[in-house]
Automatic annotation (TrEMBL):
It comes from Gluconacetobacter azotocaptans. This is Sugar porter family MFS transporter. It is found in: Cell membrane. GO terms for cellular component: plasma membrane. InterPro entries: MFS_dom, MFS_sugar_transport-like, MFS_trans_sf, Myo-inositol_Transporter, Sugar/inositol_transpt, Sugar_transporter_CS.
Amino acid sequence: MGGYGHAATMEAGWMGKPVTGRARLVAGLAAVAGLMFGLDIGVISGALSLIAQEFEATQLQQEWIVASMMLGASAGVLIAARLSFVWGRKRTLVIGAMLFVAGAVFCALSGSVGTLIVARIVMGLAIGISTFTAPLYISEIADARHRGAMVSVYQLMITIGILLAFVSDALFSYFDAWRWMLGVVAFPGVVYLIGAAFLPASPRWLMMMGRRDAARRALLELRGQAGGVARELAEIDAQLRGQTRGWALFRDNPNFRRSVLLGIMLQCIQQFTGMNVVMYYAPRIFGLAGFAEHARLWGTASVGVVNMLATFLAIGLVDRWGRRPMLVCGLLVMSAGMALLGAMIRMGPDPGGQQAMAVGVLLCFVAGFAFSAGPLVWVLCSEIQPLQGRDFGLACSTTTNWIANMIVGSTFLTLLDRLGQGQTFWLYAGLNALFVVLVLLFVPETKGLSLERIEHELMAGRRLRDIGRERVPGGVGPA
Ligand code: BGC
């Protein structure tokens, strides 16, 4: 998923203005873009076994049917980083939305594994483009008062999208209708396309292109009041003057390199928790635990419910507990969950108490992710990038998210086969335990800190995990 935490990072200081219809449209776009992301993540899990039966797909082919979307998404992020600069955010969003609809229809009509993989790559391109561009656009359009809410809406909508996909899969499974499972995504895609077509161009992009008058008009349309528009234009001017190109900054500035690498590390952590193993292969995991066909898909739907509900927990607690404790707690829960699941699967299916326990453990794992690494990695990724290099930093971390996602999605079945079923879950248990250490060593606590302070301390070379901590008087250590 794209860098939606991005939306939290633009402190343009345009407070207290009324929300215009256009601004509502932008909030709606945030919601639909999140929903599309979630639907696409969720939809394959229920369809996979039916597809495998119809095409007699090998294990490797199944893995690639899953992972091809992430391959497309990684490429989509990179394409969007360029297109959204050259053609503008809005046009890039429209292209992404068109690809969504085309990809979904193409998936539904696929006649072979090969065409399905190509169709999933098209879907992936759409999702990569949208997960990069939508948050970027939103951050440039939303006023400061509503940005935080939009981040949360976006995150929540991803989990709602996943849940809807799981439920729709469960319903269509009674008709063995995998084509409908994949094709139904075209409908929200059309809504997204229509919404994107009516969006105003981003004022910040217009300013980057030197089109000041058009930027003023776009802002007026969005804010509905002339008073603050001049101030906001001046702020954009000031921001653009301070901007260095990302690669040059990365090459020349070791402190910026740290924030880029931290973003990459955080996204690797998020993906290698193994959450998407559950997202893509939950029915298979329920199968390993001894569940019958339809029960597997309803079990998967319960995973979607817990994923969504636990996200509320994160939204409620993140600014009170802080990022580090929540991440550590979530990772510990995930590590324990994977370890227990591995143990149960090794003991073999036993219809009865153990099955219920396997479900409980899986749900704990999912909750652990949804209240920690799921939302917080995105929030942190946006908070730690200095303004001058934000687009570059986010393109790096978001691409990493998709590449790591692809690795996880394309290796699970092989791991089950080669490493063994229980051991595969233990591998993820071990990784989650390792991530606890990495978080303690490298992740700063950004709760309650202004973005300026984070940036100041980061660029002054302060040790990452000390950022935001009060200095001990007379204390030494990296400044
Ligand atoms: C992750 C996705 C994951 C989703 C699950 C997102 O934060 O980036 O990879 O599928 O959470 O809710």
